[in-house]
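Budget justification aside, the reviewers requested a transparent look at the raw inputs and outputs of the sequence design task funded under Objective 1. We therefore reproduce one unedited record. The lines immediately below are the structure tokens for a 333-residue chain.
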């Protein structure tokens, strides 16, 4: 990983004569930093995103808890999508609201028997107009991030000399991507030991981790605090860049690249202010085979491994907000 400022990928160039060059620059960014900025996303408006993010988190706690997962509110039967509250004892100090795809499923039966396709619950608010505007925005934003992610994956494949649709094919049908609205209140009062990064004692809002899916497209607005870990173990701030999203690689894309592209560790530091961010986790269809490789390799043939059960195992083991989910053996593919 370099110490230079992170590369910038301008998606406007994907539609013009500079596409091949953009694809090469993207592959270079995936290989070196694993973190880069993407700008030029058609229709992306971070002010609008901020307005809706705040609107959600300013709802009364009772309304948010009404759509909390059942491990946080036993009165709901929500297990995967929906709201999770702050846990003051955890390395991560955040509340969040997670939404799945709002497109009709090719196979609607999946809604009833597969966690990843659980319908997104909406907050019960009296002002229906505001709720409708929030829903309309969220559907549109989910679509924008999906489209930007698909373009990045096509470019990544092209930049490696693979067929353009090699990666995007893994998203058909019914991808399980997650749109996550996040609010991190600053820590106050007693600080638990878990709130300090064991590597350097920094005060955390989100502990060091790497993401699971293909790519994460993250909006950080003007809130600093995100840091990535360099190969030598040191931490580097990722400055905010107006109008751009920060993109990093998840474990699945790292695996499919044969480990050449790294899913870089990152964390969020507490700077003493309320912080908002909106990651979009670009995830394939539930049964996407993680054993495919972007390019021919000398490795022995591998057994197919489905994304869904693998991702769920990681979530249960690594993230407090999912620790009570049922194990994948109980899922139907
Ligand atoms: O809030 C941020 O800036 C980072 C969030 C993140 O890394 C995550 O939710 O996986
Ligand atoms: Fe992350």
């Amino acid at each position: 990983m370099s110490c230079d400022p992170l590369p910038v990928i301008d998606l406007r160039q994907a539609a013009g004569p500079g596409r091949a060059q953009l694809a090469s620059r993207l592959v270079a960014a995936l290989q070196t930093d694993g973190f880069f900025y993407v700008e030029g996303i058609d229709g992306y408006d971070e002010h609008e995103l901020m307005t809706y993010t705040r609107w959600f988190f300013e709802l009364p706690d009772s309304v948010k808890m009404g759509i909390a997962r059942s491990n946080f509110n036993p009165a709901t039967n929500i297990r995967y999508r929906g709201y999770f509250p702050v846990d003051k004892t955890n390395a991560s100090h955040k509340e969040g609201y997670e939404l799945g795809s709002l497109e009709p499923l090719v196979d609607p039966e999946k809604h009833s028997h597969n966690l990843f396709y659980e319908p997104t619950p909406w907050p019960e608010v009296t002002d229906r107009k505001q709720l409708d505007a929030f829903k309309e925005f969220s559907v549109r934003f989910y679509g924008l991030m999906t489209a930007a992610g698909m373009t990045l994956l096509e470019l990544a494949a092209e930049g490696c000399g693979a067929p353009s649709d090699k990666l995007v094919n893994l998203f058909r049908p019914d991808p399980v991507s997650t749109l996550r609205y996040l609010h991190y209140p600053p820590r106050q009062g007693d600080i638990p030991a878990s709130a300090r990064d064991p590597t350097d004692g920094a005060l955390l809002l989100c502990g060091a981790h790497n993401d699971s899916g293909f790519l994460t497209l993250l909006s950080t607005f003007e809130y600093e605090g995100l840091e990535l870990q360099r190969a030598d173990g040191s931490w580097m701030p990722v400055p905010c860049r107006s109008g751009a999203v920060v993109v990093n690689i998840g474990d699945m894309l790292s695996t499919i690249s044969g480990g050449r592209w790294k899913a870089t560790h990152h964390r969020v530091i507490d700077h003493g202010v309320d912080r908002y961010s909106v990651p979009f986790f670009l995830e394939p269809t539930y049964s996407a085979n993680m054993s495919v490789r972007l390019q021919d390799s000398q490795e022995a043939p591998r057994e197919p491994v489905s994304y869904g059960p693998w991702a769920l195992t990681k979530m249960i083991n690594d993230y407090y907000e999912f620790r009570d989910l049922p194990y994948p053996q109980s899922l139907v593919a």
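The helical segments are 19-32, 46-57, 61-65, 110-113, 128-159, 251-256, 307-318. The longest strand covers residues 275-282. Computational costs for records of this kind are itemized in the attached budget.
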